[in-house]
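Module 6 notes. Inverse folding takes a fixed backbone as the condition and produces residue identities as the prediction. Think of it as a translation problem where the source language is geometry and the target language is the twenty amino acids. Below is one complete input and output pair. Work through it position by position during the lab.
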């Protein structure tokens, strides 16, 4: 018979991705008694992150900032300060989030790289879990399109308006990108690996294209769960089914490594979305459960939809309920320390 300690061991969950979907999931996971590690893309070159990356030569901090806040136990007002973005009339700081500047400052001040800086900041922000940049340096995302042309840079890829065939990442000095040992160890020791939700080619794959990350995910004994996007994305996944998303992931890593796919089956109400505000989202992803099962996937379909602000999002709590079921943890189990 297992001891109380063994039965109540915290499941180790590694979430890999970037963009706006990752912190939504992390916020919901933080309510549960899970040992969370977030592996965050460092190939972003747009917005405030892109400007800081260009001028200070530091890993783009935006996605890292959002993940730190999502897992932070600081009071809400202090987290709001970290997230505050200067207004456009503040010309010198226009568009920059305070947290981005702090991450860049600590990285430069300590002169030990972004990875150490994020760990120091995690302590300051009382982060419950771990936030790991996928690599120690900023990486460039590259793409080859169906017509054989190639382009470098995340922003350029999404604005090329072409069908993407494959993506890969490169380091500025020409060396092969590598993740830090802590990232690989987290993947190797995980009970569950979660991919997404997030942009397929620009948030999830940039992490997996780091060779030792991709190898670790393929070799792990943990269950690999992919949270399929609800909407197709302009310049990335136009007209994709759920099976197409998984097919691209498997193709990039050279094997069928996805074990379970979470698919939202709740229809998005017609004309609900603000198409100007969310102009990158096109149509609801179509279902191809036969195509998913042909790739060896278990399919879990449910209402994971959350409608807010005239946009379409995953309901983080509903998704995490399913993730916790997969780990064997009862849904009633919640952290006593969550505030």
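Target side of the pair, the amino acids:
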């Amino acid at each position: 018979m297992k001891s109380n300690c063994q039965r109540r061991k915290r499941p180790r969950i590694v979430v890999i991705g970037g963009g706006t979907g990752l912190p939504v999931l992390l916020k919901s996971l933080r309510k549960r008694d899970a040992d969370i590690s977030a592996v965050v893309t460092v190939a972003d070159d747009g917005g405030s992150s892109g400007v800081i990356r260009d001028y200070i030569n530091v890993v783009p901090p935006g996605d890292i900032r959002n993940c730190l806040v999502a897992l932070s136990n600081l009071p809400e007002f202090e987290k709001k300060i970290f997230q505050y973005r200067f207004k456009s009339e503040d010309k010198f700081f226009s568009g920059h989030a305070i947290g981005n500047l702090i991450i860049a400052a600590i990285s430069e001040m300590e002169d030990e790289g972004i990875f150490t800086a994020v760990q120091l900041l995690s302590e300051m922000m009382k982060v419950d879990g771990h936030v790991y940049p996928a690599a120690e340096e900023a990486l460039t995302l590259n793409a080859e399109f169906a017509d054989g042309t190639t382009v470098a840079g995340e922003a350029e890829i999404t604005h090329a308006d072409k069908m993407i065939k494959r993506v890969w990442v490169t380091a500025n000095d020409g060396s092969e990108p590598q993740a830090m040992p802590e990232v690989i160890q987290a993947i190797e020791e995980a009970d569950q690996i979660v991919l997404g939700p997030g942009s397929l080619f620009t948030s999830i794959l940039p992490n997996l294209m780091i060779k030792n990350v991709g190898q670790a995910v393929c070799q792990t004994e943990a269950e690999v769960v992919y949270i399929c996007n609800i909407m197709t994305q302009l310049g990335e996944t136009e007209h994709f089914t759920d099976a197409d998303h998984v097919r691209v992931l498997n193709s990039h890593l050279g094997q069928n490594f996805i074990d379970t796919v979470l698919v939202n089956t709740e229809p998005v109400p017609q004309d609900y979305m603000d198409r100007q505000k969310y102009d990158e989202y096109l149509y609801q992803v179509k279902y191809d459960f036969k195509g998913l099962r042909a790739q060896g996937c278990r399919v879990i379909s449910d209402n994971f939809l959350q409608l807010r602000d005239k946009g379409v999002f995953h309901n983080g709590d509903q998704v995490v309920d399913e993730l916790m079921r997969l780990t064997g943890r009862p849904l009633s189990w919640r952290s006593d320390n969550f505030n």
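Reference fact for the lab report: Residues 47-133 form one domain.
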